[in-house]
Amino acid sequence: MSKTVVVLGAGVGGLSAAAGLRKVLPAQDRIVLIDRSFTGSLGLSLLWVMRGWRTPDQVRVRPTAAALPGVEMVTAEVDRIDDAEQTVHCQHASPIRYDALVIALGAALDASALPGLSEAFESGVAGQFYTLDGAADLHRRIGALESGRVIVLVVGVPFKCPAAPFEAAFLIADQLGAKYSSGAVRVDAFTPDALPMPVAGPDVGNALVAMMEAKGIGFHGGKSATRILPDTRVVEFADGTTELFDHLAVVPPHQSPAAAVMSTGLGPTGWIPVDPQTLATSMPSVWAIGDTTALMLPNGKPLPKAAVFAQAQSEVVAHQVARHLGYDAPDIRFTGEGACYVEIGGGLAAKGEGNFLTPPAPHIALRDPSPTYHAEKAQEERDWLARWNVR
């Protein structure tokens, strides 16, 4: 009797999981991939669009049926998951019953979570680089600045790609060129965390702070924004201080889309708790991968939200699902190995890599900036676009 496996979300994790499942499951089994638009991009591409090195059309990922042979692609908005009946309900589509479900819905942006942020976006005094259109608009606005102060503001944690806001600060300074080097425009980064990328440990965080200081970028840790006043261009913080800006580059608050479609199995913040090695949830026959999860590390902190982990987890889940369905598949586990690039401008990138599941805390090393790591990022982008944009 054939089985049905449903994958929710066509980001890095969902695409990789659907392709991996097709490889390990028999041809008679049905694999259904559901996404609202089947249009996306890599996170690293967003920063390069913000810098002006790419256009949105150059890096858009539009997976085709030719790239996913044997996978049914359903364009629909997921309405709810009935875990008791093992059924996915979508808007304007028939319910789909599953024997196994993989949730890869990613993380969504929620500007309404910070008072004044939506108004700052609407008035044009703030921008964000977590969508293609947002990154392109921010590039134009930064290019138009002749003087003043740019603040790169992390509103809350967790957020996608722990290095992204600091890469953004480097690349904004790089784009400004002489306007930055002359002091006409300043760049400062503010984050609620005491150091950048805290899960990687203080050595990595302090090294990144030193890199920013060497470029003249101000770093301000332990600063939680409570409100933005767009008319006066002021950010208010929980410690009672305020900061003036001419333009904001914001990491908006993130939320889990899964919270809107599930009623059970969620943690207190809406992110889905999973087994660190198998990615199984507390619900029968359901796994979750990538940014929508809350995978807790031995030091009690959550695994960072990054594409490299979503891709690695997709292979684990494909084999775990196959085993669950009764097939003879290797018992592959998530190891926690991962790497993260930190773009600093001028064709240079640093690289943090190591094991995040190592007890008692992640063991991560930050490699010095090099053209080689920048080239590695570019190759990852080329490979990903070529893999899915098959015509």
UniProtKB/TrEMBL annotation:
Residues 4-313 form the FAD/NAD(P)-binding domain. It comes from the Bacteria. InterPro entries: FAD/NAD-bd_sf, FAD/NAD-binding_dom, SQRD. SUPFAM superfamilies: FAD/NAD(P)-binding domain. GO terms for molecular function: oxidoreductase activity. This is NAD(P)/FAD-dependent oxidoreductase. It comes from Mycobacterium simiae. The lineage of its organism: Bacteria, Bacillati, Actinomycetota, Actinomycetes, Mycobacteriales.
